[in-house]
Design brief:
The chain is an alpha/beta fold. The longest helix has 18 residues. It has a five-stranded parallel beta sheet with strand order 5-9-8-6-7, sandwiched between helices. Strands 10-11-12-13-14 form a five-stranded mixed beta sheet, with helices on both faces. Helices cover 37% and strands 19% of the residues.
Length: 442
């Protein structure tokens, strides 16, 4: 059975319907009504993230809830203070059972997920995707406009985001991309953007590109290739903006974490804020500072320098360097160690040296292939070179390696590949401005 909670309550009788195992996904969004699932299962697997959006108390009669708590569970249930309107199944269960942390991250390129890693997960996340797995560059775009917040909407940001999406849809690079738009200030801005999208973009394109507008909670458990975030707020002359802090029980930080981490390949921050007017401790200031820092980071981790490199690996590296290839040794991707990475422009290919250890067991070979399968799902490409083939006929093995590198778009540094391609970001901006002028004229 796979169903949402409301369907469980409507369809199943907790007294009669029992399961051997119940798996609850997005449990950090499941409120205390989901505790009934514990009664329906011999064993339960609770999957969630306490750094993402928790249940909301909007529209809930808190006094009534507190009355029921005092009447029925106070003094009768341990930790009765946990069972409030903002409590989730995840938070309740995690007080008794130690969570198992899944740290490897598959969704976003490192430039995007590293924001959440630093601000919400204490640098415990191990990104598996590489920047080169996406052709949408740069991965994060800060786009300032001259907008003004009116109540909870910003019309200039709305127009800009819709124009940018229209511009993206006209570009070959975005032909298979999905799009999401997230308002970080209520639902009104998301509704305004949604209405303009329906007016300007065909239903076919909306369906094909899975264009969705909403708040961070609307996207929890979801993802898009490209996410546009509207900050909505605007600066006023000689006035410091109100502080946007972590919020009650970290609720605001959780919304920022969800909003940013929904983007797989590219994230746009569209705003009307003078960054100099933001106070220390403001989440928006923290976000802007992170965006500035991205330009200086490579997000690559090096393996322990004392690791022994085999003669076979050295032979391959020596040859590639002599032929002016850009090569990096001993990189760490997530929890996996990479022997050699060949690089050309933004393209990276892993060169795996099979048989570098003469005493390599069958079990180790199976583990290596399993690791390759995981990394290939994250966009990495592999070339494998066998030691037995190399030492039997080095020239032939190297020739085959070079052909495979060229086939995957990896060339020596002295080889010029001509391209008339205009920078993607400049193309989108120019197209969006042209659209805005056209709409204003009409």
């Amino acid at each position: 059975w796979i169903m949402p909670l409301n369907k469980v309550f409507d369809t199943l009788n907790p007294v009669e319907n029992k399961f051997d195992i119940v798996i609850v996904d997005e449990a950090s969004q499941s409120d205390i009504s989901s505790l009934i699932l514990l009664y329906m299962a011999k064993k339960i697997i609770v999957v969630g993230d306490d750094k993402q959006v928790s249940p909301s108390d909007v529209g809930v009669n808190i006094d009534k809830i507190n009355m029921f708590r005092r009447k029925y569970i106070k003094g009768n249930v341990a930790n009765d203070d946990l069972y409030g309107v903002r409590a989730s199944l995840y938070s309740i269960v995690s007080t008794t059972f130690q969570p198992i942390s899944l740290r490897e991250h598959f969704r976003s390129v490192p430039e995007i997920i590293e924001y959440s890693n630093k601000t919400s997960y204490n640098n415990q996340i191990l990104p598996l995707r590489d920047s080169s797995s996406s052709i949408l560059k740069p991965a994060i775009v800060e786009y300032k406009v001259d907008g003004k917040r009116e109540n909870k909407v910003n019309k200039v940001e709305t127009e800009t985001i819709v124009n940018l999406i229209e511009a993206c849809l006209s570009m070959e690079e975005y032909k298979n991309s999905s799009f999401g738009i997230i308002s970080l200030l209520g639902d009104e801005q998301a509704e305004l953007i949604q209405n303009l999208i329906v007016k300007r973009i065909s239903a076919v394109d909306i369906e094909n590109h899975k264009i969705l507008c909403g708040n961070p909670a609307s996207f929890q458990g979801d993802e898009r290739d490209v996410i546009f975030i509207s900050l909505v707020d605007s600066s006023e002359e000689n006035k410091t903006l109100r502080l946007v802090g972590d919020g009650i029980e970290g609720a605001t930080r959780k919304r920022y974490n969800v909003a940013v981490s929904r983007a797989k390949d590219q994230l746009w921050i569209v705003h009307s804020i003078d960054k100099n007017n933001l106070k220390e401790g403001d989440l928006r200031k923290e976000l802007f500072e992170y965006i500035d820092s991205v330009k200086e980071n490579t997000f690559e981790k090096t393996i322990d320098e004392h690791r022994i490199i085999s003669e076979f690996e050295n032979e391959i590296i020596k040859y590639l360097l002599e032929k002016n290839y850009t090569v990096k040794q001993q990189l760490r991707v997530g929890s996996y160690d990479i022997d050699i990475v060949a690089i050309y422009n933004n393209k990276k290919i892993i060169i795996e040296c099979d048989g570098k250890n003469s005493n390599c067991s069958q079990e180790e070979i199976i583990i290596n292939l399993a690791e390759q399968e995981v990394l290939e799902r994250c966009g990495w490409e592999f070339i494998r070179v066998r030691a037995s083939q190399y030492f039997r006929n080095p020239d032939k093995a190297i020739k085959e390696l070079i052909l495979q590198l060229e086939d995957k778009g990896i060339y020596p540094n002295n080889k010029e590949i001509h391209s008339n391609k205009i920078d993607l970001l400049d193309s989108i901006k120019a197209e969006a401005l042209e659209l805005m002028e056209r709409y204003e004229e009409n």
